[in-house]
Amino acid sequence: MPLTHNEAPAFVNRFTRELPADKIEDNYCRQVQGAAYSRVKPARTSNPELLSLNEELACELGLQSLLDDKAALAKVLSGNTLLPGMDPFAMVYGGHQFGNWAGQLGDGRAINLGEISTAKNKHLTLQLKGAGGTPYSRHADGRAVLRSSLREYLCSEAMFHLGVPTTRALSLVSTGDKVVRDMFYDGNPRAEPGAIVCRVAPSFVRFGNFELPASRGDNDLLRRLLDFVVVTDREDLSERVRLAGSDSSRTDVYLDWFQQVCRLTQSMIVHWMRVGFVHGVMNTDNMSVLGLTIDYGPYGWIDDYNPDWTPNTTDAANRRYRFGNQPAIARWNLYQLANAIYPIVQDAESLQSILDKLPSEYDVEFSAMMSQKLGFQHPVNCPAALIEALKKLLCLQPTDMTLFFRLLSEFKPEDAHSNVHKIVNAAFYENKQAQPSIAQAYQDWEALYRRCLLSEPALHAQRKSMMNSVNPAYVPRNYLAQQAIDAAEAGDIHVFTKLLNVLEQPYHQQLSADAYAGSKRPEWAVNKAGCSMLSCSS
Ligand code: AMP
Ligand code: MG
Questions:
Q1: Tell me, what's the pLDDT at 5?
Q2: Is 56 in the same domain as 189?
Q3: Ligand 1 site, residue 29, Cβ cutoff 6 A
């Protein structure tokens, strides 16, 4: 390993330093009580190869000196080599899965390598996904396949560049090992190429980290976790928590923290609704207390606007995690978090009052976001009726959400000939003559839209540029990701790299990309596995 101690990034590892560790260090599956994590070493892989590296993020993390030696880097980013200062561990947490309490879950195939204090004084944790079994792997192997790893890398980076709060991807490494998966749980397992993503976030703490000790009545651990996140995630609160003595004097601090978690979570959902992202598995163990999009599994992107759509075949029956239900599920999850921290906060009334305000706070933020998508400078000029009517309009015929909003910026309210229905024509999936009732609905909506827009002084060019800064031209459509996967599995990573490059500037029209990334989903992708239906198998 060429790196010397002086060149290594500064690992500070507050989680392992300050929270109680599992006393057992052997790596076998078990229930872990009274601890926040277990120390565990990543497994060896036979032939780690770097398929993609986020150099900008690597530099931010202080890994510059490693960049020249890609083979050494692949070993670090697959867990085969540990850098000085790394202290690998798996977190223990629980969670509600599909609405039911699932007990202990934990990092079954995620291993945190350590927390770096960056030159910009940020704290970022490196976490390998798919680096082998941990005490929380239950009956699974702790590995990940190339297709799901590539999907995580692609989507988390796309989300970052779209301005959506998210964990990030530092690297994608193929392991050289095969991993057996039954992709659709239908008795057809196959050996797939294994891979590891190194993801990065200020913290990977989930709602479920609090739910598990709460479910076990372990108030000591619960309090320590709560104090830890307040101090580490909220610099502005850390002094208050240090000064506060008893639990009761800390209550306000905890409430402030919880309120912020609510705010961040709802903001994240507003972003999801803005860009047409469906997470697919909003279990409480997949909810970050920093309001980051986390755990990219059977997620999907809305092609034709449909609030009832879910990409997750495991959720096909109840559609709990469908696009339009995400705000309600986020609230449901925040209730679980409130219940979990109640034994320490001890103020049910205040927790309830924070929760009670969630729907109206969400509505305000959602409306402001929609008003921007529609090109309004001031949300007050965009009435709720216009937004509600638009939601209905988009459902009248299969309409590509991304294209619709991008095209809509061509509408000129001051020009009597400017016609919304014509302008957005390329967003329609069925290229047939519109039914008169649909044409009429468009006319009615356009009349209201025109009137509302004309109440604002903005010039067309100004409005268009504002709309195009919130309405992406490119999102990682499901079929695009699948094309990148098919090529990568055949040994060609360039399709992925090219797509990633486009998605790094999602609001900027790129003529060379339009032919494949800027148009709506092709017909062949409608029922193709991976393009419209995904399972949790990864
Ligand atoms: P997920 O649905 O990916 O959020 O995973 C739910 C739980 O199952 C988490 O505790 C994961 O760490 C665990 N898990 C998922 N896949 C695997 C795997 N291949 N090996 C071990 N644990 C896994
Ligand atoms: Mg998860």
A1: 42
A2: yes
A3: no
Q: Are residues 194 and 62 in the same domain?
A: yes
Q: What is the separation of C-alpha 406 from the centre of its chain, rounded to a whole number of angstroms?
A: 23
What 3-state class would DSSP assign to 196?
A: strand
Distance CA 428, CA 411 (A): 17
Domain boundary among 204, 231, 250: 204
Give the Å distance between the CA of 346 and the centre of ligand 2: 29
Show the domain range for 72.
14-204
Same domain, 536 and 451: yes
The arithmetic mean of pLDDT across residues 36-55, rounded, is 98
Does position 434 have pLDDT exceeding 80, yes or no? no
In a domain, 382, yes or no: yes
Domain match, 398 and 357 both? no
**pTM for the predicted model, two decimal places:** 0.96
Q: Report the pLDDT value the prediction gives residue 4, as an integer from 0 to 100.
A: 47
Residue that finishes a domain, picked among 366, 386, 405: 366
Residue matched to tokens 């909220």: 234
Residue (of 90, 82, 86) closest to 28 by Cα position: 90
User: pLDDT by residue (tens digit) across 273-318?
Assistant: 999 999 999 999 999 999 999 999 999 999 999 999 999 989 999 9
Looking at the CA of 129, which ligand is closest?
A: 1
Q: What is the tens place of the pLDDT at every residue in 213-238?
A: 999 999 999 999 999 999 999 988 98
By CB atoms closer than 10 A (0-12, 13-18, 19+), residue 489 is: middle
Judged by DSSP in three states, 199 sits in strand
Report which of 344, 153, 159 is spatially closest to residue 258, judged by C-alpha positions: 344
Cα 162 from Cα 155, distance rounded (Å): 10
Which is it for strands 123-129 and 168-181: parallel, antiparallel or unpaired?
A: unpaired
Angle (deg, nearest 10), helices 247-275 and 219-233:
60
* Phi, psi for residue 200 in degrees, rounded to 5: -135, 135
**152 and 182 inside one domain:** yes
Q: Cα of 141 to ligand 1 centre, how many Å?
A: 9
Instruction: Say if residue 216 is in the same domain as residue 200.
Output: no
Please return the burial class of 193, using the count of CB atoms within 10 Å of its CB with bins 0-12, 13-18 and 19+.
middle
How many structural domains is the chain composed of?
A: 3
Find out whether the beta carbon of 109 lies less than 6 Å from any atom of ligand 1: yes
